[in-house]
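Each record in this resource describes a single protein on a pair of labelled lines. With that in mind, the following record should read easily:

===
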Amino acid sequence: MSEDRKPSDFDEFLRSAHGISTPSAGQNGGGEQKKPTSAFWKFCYAINIIIWPFIIWGWTYNASLTPEQREAMRIEVEAEKQAAQAKAKAEEEACAKDLSCIGEKHNAAAIKACSPEIEGLAKYDHEWTAWLTRFSRMRWGSKGNDVITYLGDEIKFQNGFGAWHRYRYECDLNVKTGTVLNVRANLGRMQR
């Protein structure tokens, strides 16, 4: 900074942000300034001290491998990846045969797809009594393992006189396509 220029407010802001004190005329001869030591730069320095040794070790380790060792490592990684994919596929197939597993997996899709259809059954008005647990039960649908019937009783329908009545409802959902096949509602609650 030249002698004839006065420090601006922005210069003062930068100094205060980096922890630099503005020297007065009598302090340190007026010319020396403290170097910035913000927490950010300390953090960057610490990260560099920690990370660079691992990067260098990785380069030297990888450079010391023979082509046969690299190929063996690649085959091992590929085999682990295929084993993980096979395990995930087996778990998915097992889940598709278990009603509680596949039903819970598609519960959010059932709420999203079935709720408007159930609400459409109301002649006048409707009111949900629960927001998250609209379906308390489920069973396999009539068309095999692709269809699940979700059941619940968390809605009230209003009649022509303004009175509210609880209804039980069913929604047939194709879990493969996510489409609603049929909805039904009857007066009363489900048996507990």
